[in-house]
């Protein structure tokens, strides 16, 4: 039976409060200012009517993996002042849709996509925040640049003036072994440090988007400035991620 709107509101509000408190606690443990970590609620598979309730409960930013799903929700919820982040792989032919509504794109790993997205954004008279995606785990099923290719890739990005480069994004290995997960986050911190020295002028790498519902506290310990949390806010999805996104696990 579907929970009524009032109960959904309370559940999301309580879950948000719990996640935010855990972010504060993780920051204190790491000697960091909690204000330095942004929570990005991940809304993939959550119906638009439930997102309207989530907005009322305090979710004013929303992250979506699939451009089609993000586009449809942004249209249905266009009366709300939601900041949309696309956090999943983007095909070149879908860049025109992203350019119309997204505030942020966290999965750039291709110069073809950079070129097409920049062109489409210029047509729209817009610019958006962009994160370069890195495959920190080395898994063949994951998108993102291999760590050793990031520096050369970044050197070419100043050509695309509508892409405001803000930092890096990764998905850590999905494992119950915290040491293996932490290795991914440490690698990202090391790449960030290198880029701060070597990246072209005008590009910023202050942001590190890493950590999801199962590992965001570890990510914060290793320097995450954005954590992408879905199930801890909205509850478990009806089916495992592999059903919606083959290769995600």
From TrEMBL:
Ranges annotated as spanning the membrane: none
Residues covered by the Alanine racemase N-terminal domain: 17-238
Cofactor names: pyridoxal 5'-phosphate
Statement: the UniProt record of this protein carries the keyword Disulfide bond: no
Keywords for the protein's UniProt record, in alphabetical order: Pyridoxal phosphate
Listed Pfam families: Ala_racemase_N
GO molecular function: pyridoxal phosphate binding
Positions of post-translational N6-(pyridoxal phosphate)lysine modification: 44
The keyword GTP-binding belongs to this UniProt entry's keyword annotation: no
Function description: Pyridoxal 5'-phosphate (PLP)-binding protein, which is involved in PLP homeostasis.
Family: Belongs to the pyridoxal phosphate-binding protein YggS/PROSC family.
Protein name: Pyridoxal phosphate homeostasis protein
Organism for this UniProt entry: Nitrosomonas ureae
